[in-house]
Amino acid sequence: MARPAKPKTELAQRLVELRGVENREDFCARLGISEGTYANYERGDRIPDVNLITKVSLSEGISLDWLLLGEGPMRRNETPALPSDKAGTRKLIWNIAHAFWSNLPRRSKPEEVADQFVEMFDYLAQKDIGEEAAAKVIEFGAEQLRRSIKK
């Protein structure tokens, strides 16, 4: 058996990722295309047409933003990692605000703090990351604001 070629394009890489460990024969049978055709798409030798892209998106529940652009979650039904209840959301906001404020110089303007905080909240709320990574993001945002104040 020949060694698999590295995908030539980002779209080809996402098509490989989409199929995952499922064998090509079963995957292609479900989509109603030939294995050879899909192999060309996975290698990046050919670009799938809009009909196949639509079929893959609908049948597999794949986000078109992810498939075509590599942006956002892979699956359409994936939602941001926000808490589902008011108390959880309140705690998340409080923790981010507290950690962010504690990293800022006290002469920070409220508008700058609010704008930076909202950007960080939006970023952290859409990512499923651990507390250590969230702390690094908050420190980075605070450092950016510190530097903008010194100018």
Q: Main beta sheet: strand number and arrangement?
A: none
Rg measurement, Å: 22 Å
Number of strands: 0
- Quaternary assembly: single chain
Class by alpha and beta content = mainly alpha
Shape: elongated
In percent terms, what proportion of residues is strand?
under 5%
**Straight-line distance between termini:** 61 Å
Structural summary, described in words:
This protein has 151 residues and is mostly helical. The protein is 65% helix and 0% strand. The chain is elongated and about 65 Å long. The termini are far apart. The mean pLDDT is 75.
Task: Describe this protein with a few key phrases.
mainly alpha, 151 residues
Give the topology, please.
Elements: H1 10-19, H2 24-31, H3 35-43, H4 50-60, H5 64-69, H6 86-102, H7 110-126, H8 131-150
Helix pairs in contact: 6-7, 6-8, 7-8
Summarize the structure.
The chain has helices spanning 10-19, 24-31, 35-43, 50-60, 64-69, 86-102, 110-126, 131-150.
